[in-house]
Specification:
With 231 residues, the chain is of the alpha/beta class. The protein has 10 helices and 7 strands. The protein has 2 domains: 85 residues, no CATH class; 135 residues, Rossmann fold, CATH 3.40.50. The strands form 2 sheets. Strands 5-4-1-6-7 form a 5-stranded parallel beta sheet, sandwiched between helices. A two-stranded antiparallel sheet has the order 2-3.
């Protein structure tokens, strides 16, 4: 669902769509002008990658860095990030999924711990694409909560901490949902430098729109997980 939302609204930030809906619903001329100007402002602001990077820091969880904890990581957990169809009958893992598995392999070698790959069909695609050794490959996972819940069927939370290999904007929700299931979580010290999504450019771009949409998605996902008791 995340990839459908982000792909369909890649070029138009979701917040602008909501504002424009209000523009057509409201009758007042004053408020129509207000929402119209607001939509122009949001369109420009959301196109600047640096703004998304600064806002996205709300989702960072630096207190969980390996260097700030006495806990030892026992597994590298790699949540996948979707797949895409090439139009010729084949599915492929997204660039973000490939980035995560390569980063996860690097962490696995660095800390000499096994990898857990968790996702949907994209997990199987990644497993076939990269002939790495995995402690576990979960390929029937639909969302972050299901990933955390299903992990308990294969490993005991007391076995050690999970070292995350995912985007910084995804850290907070992933950590909270894993902790809800009793797992201890760590993040690598160099995640900002290594993973994609960190861009301090003030030049408007499509990447800015996509990053802004990801932040909006993650924000409402956090709210929904909190309301539904998943975190």
């Amino acid at each position: 669902m995340k990839n459908i939302v982000l792909d369909n609204f890649l070029y138009v930030p979701m917040c602008i769509i909501w504002v424009l809906i209000l523009y057509f619903i409201i009758k007042s001329t004053f408020w129509k002008k207000f929402f119209l100007y607001l939509s122009f402002f949001l369109f420009f602001a959301s196109s600047i990658p640096a703004i998304s990077t600064f806002i996205g820091k709300f989702f960072y969880s630096d207190n969980y860095k390996v260097s700030k904890n006495d806990k030892k990581a026992s597994f590298v957990l790699i949540p996948t990030a979707g797949q895409y169809h090439d139009g010729y009958g084949k599915w492929h893992p997204t660039y973000e999924s490939i980035m995560r598995i390569q980063y996860g392999k690097n962490l696995s070698d660095q800390f000499s711990i096994p990898m857990i790959l968790s996702g949907g069909r994209d997990a199987t695609l990644l497993q076939e694409m990269f002939g790495y050794d995995y402690y576990l490959v979960e390929s029937n996972i639909k969302n972050t909560f299901q990933m955390a819940e299903n992990l308990k069927d294969f490993i005991n939370p007391s076995e050690g901490s999970l070292l995350l290999a995912t985007k910084p904007v995804h850290h907070k929700r992933t950590i909270l949902v894993l902790e809800k299931q009793g797992f201890k979580v760590l993040i690598p010290d160099n995640y900002v430098r290594t993973l994609s999504g960190i861009n301090y450019s003030f030049v408007p771009s499509i990447k800015g729109f996509k990053a802004f949409n990801e932040i909006i998605y993650e924000f409402f996902a956090l709210i929904w997980y909190f309301i539904s008791g998943k975190i």
